[in-house]
Amino acid sequence: MKAIALTRYLPIENPDSLVDIELAIPEPLSHDLLVKICAIAVNPVDTKVRKPKDKVETTPKVLGWDAAGEVIAVGDAVTLFKVGDLVYYAGDVTRSGCNAEYQLMDERIVGHKPQSLNFEAAAALPLTAVTAWEALFDRLGIAQDANKNKDKSILIIGAAGGVGSIAIQLAKKVAGLNVIATASRPETTAWVRDLGADIVLNHHQLLQEISQLNIQPDYILCNNDTDGYFEVMAAIIKPQGKICSIVETAKPVNLDLLKSKSATFVWEFMFTRSMFKTDDMIAQHQILQHVAQLIDAGTLTTTLNQVLRPINAENLRKAHAQLESGTTIGKLVLSGW
Fold this sequence. Notes:
This protein has 337 residues and is α/β, with parallel strands linked by helices. 29% of the residues lie in helices and 26% in strands.
């Protein structure tokens, strides 16, 4: 099968940073599905795993954690899917990734593809949808009921990216929260408003602008630069409020800033359930099933914004370079072999 892989961790400008290779098609075991991949999406995690370092892989390493495709074989313990099912999923960072024609994936973290979406639009969703869902409803404990969230608000920092784009929709259309989003360019401001943000603030002047509005959000979801925003988040969070971040810190942050407010800080890492094979690992299957229902009902929309064709090393390097530029709006997808 065709695949795109690395053996050395190089700057994306280097043509050897991601290369086209051929690999054997794997065989499914136990709860595995063998999926023929039709479209893939790129995420910041791809560039973080690939970032330059002094390490050489003895066998080619395939990245990629967002895919949509067709089940062509199943393991002997599979009960949720059958051959021919169309699926979408984010995957497992401990296993070989989706930048390949075929991939094995545990059925417990796979969902049936939304019927109303093509493969490209579906591939844009899984990692960010699961991340946003877990952040809002599992980590922050927000009720999926607008009646219970009356007059409550959430601040979403980095709202025009992949996670922010779906988090706006879930917070507004599922939880019924007042949504405050950050963006700074005209195109990102328009994007988050179209997705449902009630208020848009410039993240370069966040403390000043939110103070002028006299708002203390009940919840904050940080999708960018936890180090840089931590003091601001601590200053503006409502007493007894909750903050969730998906971005690792480069240095220790001062949790004492939250003490007087009895505020909560919690992490969201989408790969936790699959990495540690948690007892509730199947929750990600259930989340993807629910998201598909919301998509097909017209409650949520895909966050797809750009498609590159075909799936090959050259286009994947272009996609990684665009992500690293920090200017991507919504999701970037590659389609077709």
